[in-house]
Amino acid sequence: MQKFIDDMSSDNLLTALESNMAAFWSAYGRGSGCTMQSTPNVVWFYTGIQAALFNGVLSAKMKYDEVKATVDSLQSKIDERGAPALWWLGPQSTPENLGVLLEQHGLQSVGETPGMAVDLAVVNSMPKTIENFMIEKVSNVEMQALWARIAAIGTGFSDTATTEMAQLEATLTDSQYKAQRRYIGFLDGVPIATSAMVLDSGVAGIYAVATIPEARRKGIGEIMTVMPLLEARQIGYRVGILQASSMGYPIYKRMGFKDVCKFNIYLQSKKES
Fold it and tell me: Distance (Å, rounded) from C-alpha 46 to C-alpha 53?
């Protein structure tokens, strides 16, 4: 049985946050036609989906001579299939000047994303009740594809990436999902929102909180975040984590999430011939 992270002051929190994130995204690297590379020094995956989020480096604790080798390995996939990739440089990424080295290899800095954590003891019950709104846990292949499609639309992916994501999601098995749970929110019977939770590394990670554009500003995203966290708390988890988008950040702050680190994100794309 995994040991829970006791509280947000734990020395292991940042390690758990990075490991949990890698656990979510690496499931896609184990999908049909995808690539997954995992060593003690680096974890990267490539799906070929035409959205950079679905390809890239999730954990990097490399030596200097490993940086170029990883860039080259990922570049071969990018040049072959065309989809770009992201490098997530977290608080424990090494070497310390990894961002500079990536820029020397032609990568582009595309911003920062905060890593956040919350003491689950302070998470309130459902923030509001919305008439005719209900949440269902994904339980079969058809729901997996539907979850992916709604998540992609709510995130703003292209039609091509949305179709690719739904096709890949439907190939994932329970063993590939491992400790993941996915949820779909329905309003008047229509699927309009998603979220996912990963119970890994002693923390409950929240991912893929998305609402289709026409259903926003009703508090649905907050409900889709709170419900899994309450579920995790009931199981015994004490800390929740996530990486916040600019749209979600003020909502998470209001819920009690605190900034605990930041991820510097670099884009690697196909080289022009």
Answer: 10
Identical fold, 13-114+262-268 and 119-260: yes
pTM above 0.90, yes or no: yes
Question: 130 phi and psi, to 5 degrees?
Answer: -110, 125
Torsion over CA: 140, 177, 179, 24 (sign) = negative
Nearest C-alpha neighbor of 22 from the set 263, 272, 271: 263
Interval 121-142: pLDDT, tens? 999 876 678 889 999 999 999 9
Q: Residues 58-106: pLDDT tens digits?
A: 999 999 889 999 999 999 999 999 999 999 999 999 999 999 999 999 9
Domain 119-260 has CATH 2.60.120.10: no
Residues in the chain: 273
**256 with 242: CB under 8 angstroms?**
no
**Sequence spans of domains, the chain:** 13-114+262-268, 119-260
Q: Judge: domain 13-114+262-268, CATH 3.30.70.
A: no
